[in-house]
Amino acid sequence: MTATDRSIELIQTAAQAAADKLAHDIIAYDVSDVLSITDAFLLASAPNDRQVKSIVDEIEERLSKELGAKPVRREGDREARWVLLDYVDIVVHVQHSEERVFYALERLWKDCPELDLPEEAKATRGKAAEHAKFQAEEDSADLGGLR
After folding, report:
1. Is 2 helix (H, G, I), strand (E, B) or coil?
2. Which of 1, 39, 40, 60 has its CA 20 to 30 A from that of 111?
């Protein structure tokens, strides 16, 4: 079994929405062979809670406006560290970068086929590591000024 045309359409639109809101490391997996509850997972992350929320809101708005899809479940909203949007056909995980590293969902699904994503979404790969390096350099420069 493979992801349906509908789930691929949802994944593509959600990935583009996430990329438009500057999400990091957007990736999608076809999990239809290993899970009966959904066809595909989309993973994306952001360096702060406010951006996580912004990405989630954009995904929800675009899927609703462009494809008439509304999530049947939305979890993790209050903390905005890891928000899950369940559209039945697909499940979207938007995580704070720290949660993304800690829970490493990619490890769980690495044996599942990756779904092709829009170019803008593919271009986000490795952005979290870049951001972390930049942040560490900034933090150490700030500390240098305190001496």
Report:
1. coil
2. 60
